[in-house]
């Protein structure tokens, strides 16, 4: 993107990953797009420091709630984006994390496509990567966690989660659970019932990368208790699996040696 | 990070995600760390535009190959990082994508821990997010793909992949396969044998986000053919599942409507 040319054409929409919250974890491209927009729509999950990068003259509109957002709200957001684009605005839609991971970007793209509005995506750092980085842990581990699964556990009160528990309960994998605080008890019970050990390491992260970040190490059987003490209103991610135990040097080396021996 | 203070202390190591290749997809934090380092170790997967950001006076050392890297090489890298830190350097270890996803960061952290070297992680944009963004696709889709699984399919010639195929072959999920070009035939055959439809959408991306990016849309039964025509030396990511079919507006809306009806 040349500095002489606006990277967003009038009537174009960019879905931009705002990353986990720390404005320094925004990409250079996202920063350029934010500075080039004439209007910015943003989620509650977008960090305040990121919003500070929006130039003073740019229109900014808050959309969406942290959780419990209904489809009606999503329809309104789709409409707002399309209407702004059709009015000739240079539109940035800021989304917490990466737009392609539990970001409903497909719905916004479909709506733009319906109205002939050009839409593009700028990827971002997802919350699981930020939580692992803050904790000094890896999400994968050679010989110990060769698979990483992202799920969303955003169920309504009283409803069971529709997840393939047997497939999830793999001791050689890491599970990253987005929006799962309310479902912590069910996740813990089901994963244990399907074979994961009660002492499987768990890392809970709230507001990862932000000044009020909370990191809590626990084990799968104690996850419901730990989730209950994490700040109520926070964006929480739960990482489950041997890899996230952190800088367990001897475990890491043993696993790597085993992987080498098998290879 | 204040501009008056170096964010890397002497003798400290930062494992830094370099993102998918485009220097604009580097985080602002990664850029600051690169500019603050006295020595930078980097992978073959780190984009040339990213390396251009290393100041002229900074030592730069290429480590690792694109694939087939042996553990001996990893041990050498671990040693190099530790030795540089113990010599008082401000060390940045640049890794393609995100350090926590198939980046062997746990092994480098363990090695640093062994020698009392402080080590921290700066997360990055992973290749799957970049490939989806380039293709205008989402990795998850409400009502259609509620799960996203990252696997690495880096097997040696003649060896079978050790993956739980039954768990992977979930039609309501997206699979992101890293380093899997050589295993494309086996992946395709096994996933179909375990129940995925032959016409499951596949997106192949080579060098996502770079000027020589290649994007190829195909279907699971044709994946081996498609993988064979992707540039030989390229970093390839394979995305499998209904979500990656792209801006299929009617599919997206139908899936969202179904999710709403179920909720």
Automatic annotation (TrEMBL), chains A, B:
<dbReference type="InterPro" id="IPR006366">
    <property type="entry name" value="CobA/CysG_C"/>
</dbReference>
<keyword id="KW-0808">Transferase</keyword>
<feature type="domain" description="Tetrapyrrole methylase">
    <location>
        <begin position="13"/>
        <end position="221"/>
    </location>
</feature>
<dbReference type="InterPro" id="IPR050161">
    <property type="entry name" value="Siro_Cobalamin_biosynth"/>
</dbReference>
<keyword id="KW-0489">Methyltransferase</keyword>
<dbReference type="InterPro" id="IPR000878">
    <property type="entry name" value="4pyrrol_Mease"/>
</dbReference>
<comment type="pathway">
    <text>Porphyrin-containing compound metabolism; siroheme biosynthesis; precorrin-2 from uroporphyrinogen III: step 1/1.</text>
</comment>
<protein>
    <recommendedName>
        <fullName>uroporphyrinogen-III C-methyltransferase</fullName>
        <ecNumber>2.1.1.107</ecNumber>
    </recommendedName>
</protein>
<dbReference type="Pfam" id="PF00590">
    <property type="entry name" value="TP_methylase"/>
</dbReference>
<keyword id="KW-0949">S-adenosyl-L-methionine</keyword>
<dbReference type="GO" id="GO:0004851">
    <property type="term" value="F:uroporphyrin-III C-methyltransferase activity"/>
</dbReference>
<keyword id="KW-0627">Porphyrin biosynthesis</keyword>
<dbReference type="GO" id="GO:0019354">
    <property type="term" value="P:siroheme biosynthetic process"/>
</dbReference>
<dbReference type="GO" id="GO:0032259">
    <property type="term" value="P:methylation"/>
</dbReference>
<comment type="similarity">
    <text>Belongs to the precorrin methyltransferase family.</text>
</comment>
<dbReference type="InterPro" id="IPR035996">
    <property type="entry name" value="4pyrrol_Methylase_sf"/>
</dbReference>
<dbReference type="InterPro" id="IPR014777">
    <property type="entry name" value="4pyrrole_Mease_sub1"/>
</dbReference>
<dbReference type="InterPro" id="IPR014776">
    <property type="entry name" value="4pyrrole_Mease_sub2"/>
</dbReference>
């Amino acid at each position: 993107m040349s500095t002489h040319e606006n990277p967003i054409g009038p009537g174009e929409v960019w879905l931009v990953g705002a990353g986990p919250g720390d404005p320094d974890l925004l990409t250079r491209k996202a920063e350029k797009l934010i500075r080039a927009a004439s209007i910015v729509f943003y989620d509650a999950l977008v960090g305040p420091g990121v919003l500070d990068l929006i130039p003073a003259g740019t229109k900014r509109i808050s959309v969406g709630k942290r959780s419990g957002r209904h489809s009606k709200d999503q329809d309104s957001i789709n409409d707002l984006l399309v209407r702004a684009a059709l009015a000739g605005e240079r539109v940035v839609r800021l989304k917490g994390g990466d737009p392609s991971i539990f970001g409903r970007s497909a719905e916004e793209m479909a709506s733009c496509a319906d109205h002939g509005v050009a839409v593009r995506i700028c990827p971002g750092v997802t919350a699981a990567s930020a939580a692992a980085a803050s904790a000094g842990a890896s999400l994968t581990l050679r010989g110990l966690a060769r698979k990483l699964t992202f799920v969303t556990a955003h169920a309504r009160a009283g409803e069971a989660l529709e997840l393939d528990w047997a497939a999830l309960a793999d001791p050689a994998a890491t599970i990253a659970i987005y929006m799962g605080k309310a479902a912590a008890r069910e996740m813990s019970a089901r994963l244990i019932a399907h074979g994961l050990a009660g002492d499987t390491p768990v890392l809970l992260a709230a507001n990862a990368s932000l000044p009020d970040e909370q990191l809590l190490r626990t084990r799968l059987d104690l996850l419901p208790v730990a989730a209950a003490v994490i700040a109520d209103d926070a964006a929480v991610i739960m990482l489950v699996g041997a890899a996230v135990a952190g800088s367990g040097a001897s475990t890491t080396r043993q696993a790597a040696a085993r992987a080498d021996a098998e290879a």
